[in-house]
Design a protein that fits this description.
The protein is about 65% helix and about 0% strand. The protein has 11 helices and no strands.
């Protein structure tokens, strides 16, 4: 089984300031390389971009999988910071819109974000449910309470809708980001209060969220059509 953790000595012993700077520099460069080339980019590619030897990367992260895991954890932390900060906007609706714009922009601009999220569905689903979904749920409920969001919208709708919209960027290189943002703004216009929320089907249940993530992988087989 692939070890997705960082080397044991780094978990138990604080890094020196210069070692910490090197680690952060590797993470930043690796994220840029993965953003451009996807997760198929090699450790050699990353070492060349950083200007260090391959051994330095393995010394910090243990493996390519460990490096990807560290980037993923950093991304989850960023998402939590963004959702928490946007929750303090004058209205919950304004905060929710900004969160959804952030999600779409992140996935539209960075191939690695989508690949990390949807190719690691089990880990992603657990982290999103345990660490991010409660924050989103609070923001969603506040937006409903202020009368700016339709009653049948749920926290799970946020990643499902933003992923669907950001898919446009992969289908339309070059103009993809602008098209994704356009489609999101059109979608947001339809999320206001509706007099009859029963006109649309029910949202994706929480217990089906991980299964949905698995189907987002580029190599996933199409789901069987309902009989």
């Amino acid at each position: 089984m692939t070890d997705m953790s960082t080397p044991k000595e780094e978990r138990t012993k604080p890094l020196r300031s210069d070692a910490l700077r090197n680690r952060l520099r590797i993470l930043e460069s690796a994220e840029e390389v993965f953003a451009d080339r996807g997760l198929d980019a090699s450790v050699d590619d990353i070492a060349l971009a950083v200007g260090v030897g391959v051994g330095t990367i393995y010394r910090h992260f243990g493996s390519k999988a460990g490096l990807i895991n560290s980037i993923f954890e950093h991304r989850i932390g960023t998402i939590i910071e963004i959702v928490t900060e946007r929750s303090s906007r004058p209205t919950a609706w304004e905060g929710l819109c900004e969160v959804m714009r952030f999600f779409v922009d992140a996935q539209s601009q960075n191939r690695a974000v989508s690949e990390m999220i949807y190719e690691r569905a089990d880990t992603t689903g657990r982290h999103l449910r345990e660490r991010v979904e409660p924050l989103l749920a609070d923001l969603v409920e506040k937006a409903k309470a202020e009368g700016s969001l339709r009653e049948d919208f749920t926290a799970t709708d946020v990643p499902v809708l933003t992923h669907s919209v950001s898919d446009v960027a992969r289908l339309q290189p070059g103009r993809g980001r602008d098209l994704a943002r356009r489609h999101l703004e059109l979608l947001l216009k339809g999320l206001g209060p509706t007099p009859d929320p029963h006109l649309v089907p029910s949202p994706l249940p929480d217990d089906e969220f991980v299964d949905w993530l698995r189907t987002r992988r580029p190599d996933a087989a199409p789901s069987a059509s309902p009989r």
